[in-house]
Design a protein that fits this description.
Layout: E1 2-6, H1 11-22, E2 26-31, E3 46-49, H2 56-62, E4 66-69, H3 76-81, H4 83-103, E5 108-114, H5 137-156, E6 159-165, E7 167-169, H6 185-194, E8 200-203, E9 215-216, E10 218-220, H7 221-231, E11 240-245, E12 251-252, H8 253-264, E13 270-273, H9 288-294, H10 303-316
Parallel strand pairs: 1-2, 1-4, 2-3, 4-5, 5-6, 6-11, 7-10, 8-13
Antiparallel strand pairs: 9-12
Helix pairs in contact: 1-7, 2-4, 4-5, 6-8, 6-10, 8-10
Bound molecules: nicotinamide-adenine-dinucleotide (NAD) and galactose-uridine-5'-diphosphate (GDU).
InterPro entries: Epimerase_deHydtase, NAD(P)-bd_dom_sf, Sc_DH/Rdtase_CS, UDP_G4E
Keywords: Carbohydrate metabolism, Isomerase, NAD
GO molecular function: UDP-glucose 4-epimerase activity
Length: 317
């Protein structure tokens, strides 16, 4: 297929671009390089540096058969203090993209949604039918785009899939997580191991979990890429599917610290700090739906493997 990947210079978008190229797809990346890197775009893909807001001429030129839409702002804390950036970029930008698709008669899309759409869960593992009550503007902006896709499927025959990622980790094809502003646990812990940061602050050790630290569901970016390839041709015209993507296993922050110590051999100084506002105690996905519909199952579920692959990337920089 001829595909357009928005956000293909970012962490997940660049890995999925490499996987698409490997499967024989023709890829154009649209990215404004606000948090991405030109050198992360895999060889073989064309980069057009543009914003989602200016995507119409790009769609008219490329005439893609499908769009994979990763481009977004995704810092939870920032979304709370500067919400306009999230409504403007994630919601306004996605609306501009959908309109550009409509004008170019491209009606197939896979969208990066998030576990943050659910907010504090009533039940774990989280099913797609769980209530969606985001606790931050980032999650709310992604949920708004999910709603947009449902209406574009109904009104305009879009074939759409929202993939709700849980915590993505690992690296592949020589690309990995690399942000000027880093908030995610694995890259921060690896910066400490690499000596570019002094210590890791664990946000709270008084949660109602076995070791008192938060539990998350870590999914390897390679498994995530495989899900995108399966999702791309799956929906019929007029259909909007929503799938969770996680490994189905929860690991605590403390277990992650232990894994990073094992993989890197670094003592990893840790400071126990206050809870971070809006962090649920336990987020674990049920990915049963995508398993039964598309046959997806995560393969790289070992925490050590996720951390090792991210560590190899960190060391390669
Ligand atoms: N990393 C995770 O654990 C995680 C979890 C759930 C969902 N997601 C979602 O997955 C997607 C990719 O996340 P990531 O971690 O790779 O982030 P990233 O910041 O590395 O990548 C996002 C890319 O989009 C580009 N971009 C942002 N706004 C743009 C705009 N208006 N026009 C054009 N390009 C723009 C950035 O330059 C960047 O290259 C995001 O939509 C994010 O919300 C990520
Ligand atoms: O320096 C840090 C960074 C994180 N954490 C903890 O580590 C866990 C993971 O935090 P991340 O920031 O790596 O990830 P989040 O769980 O906050 O966020 C992820 O899951 C969200 C769903 O709630 C969204 O999908 C979001 O896009 C995605 O990055 C949390 O318990 C957090 O409190 C620390 O203790 N110290």
């Amino acid at each position: 297929m001829r595909v357009l990947v928005t956000g293909g210079a970012g962490y997940i978008g660049s890995v999925v671009t490499a996987a698409l190229l490997e499967s024989g797809h023709e890829v154009t990346v649209l990215d404004d390089l606000s948090t991405g890197h030109e050198d992360a775009v895999p060889d073989g893909a064309r980069l057009v540096q543009a914003s989602l807001h200016d995507s119409a001429p790009v769609l008219a030129d490329v005439r893609p058969e499908a769009v994979l839409h990763f481009a977004a702002k995704s810092l939870v804390g920032e979304s709370q203090v500067a919400p306009e950036l999230y409504w403007e970029n994630n919601v306004g930008g996605s609306l501009a993209l959908l309109e550009a698709m409509r004008a170019a008669d491209c009606r197939r899309i896979v969208f990066s949604s998030t576990a943050a759409a659910y907010g504090e869960p009533e039940e774990v593992p989280i099913l797609e039918t769980a209530p969606t009550r985001p606790t931050n503007t980032y999650g709310a902006s992604k949920l708004a785009v999910d709603a947009m896709l449902t209406s574009y499927a109904t009104a305009y025959g879009f074939a759409a899939v929202s993939l709700r990622y849980f915590n993505v980790g690992g690296a592949a094809y020589g690309v990995g997580e690399r942000h000027a502003t880093e908030t995610h646990l694995i890259p921060i812990a690896l910066q400490v191991a690499a000596g570019t940061r002094e210590s890791l602050t664990v946000y709270g050790s008084d949660y109602p979990t076995p070791d008192g630290t938060c539990i998350r569901d870590y999914v390897h970016v390679v498994d995530l890429a495989a899900a995108h390839l399966l999702a791309l041709p799956a929906p019929a015209a007029g259909e909007h599917r929503i799938y969770n993507l996680g490994s189905g296993t929860g690991f605590s922050v403390q277990e992650m610290v232990d894994a990073v110590r094992t993989v890197t051999g670094h003592e990893l100084p840790v400071v126990v700090g206050d809870r971070r506002a809006g962090d649920p105690a336990r987020l674990v996905a049920s990915s049963a739906k995508i398993h039964s519909d598309l046959g997806w199952a995560p393969v790289h579920t070992d925490l050590t493997e996720i951390v090792s692959d991210a560590w190899a990337f960190t060391q390669s920089r």
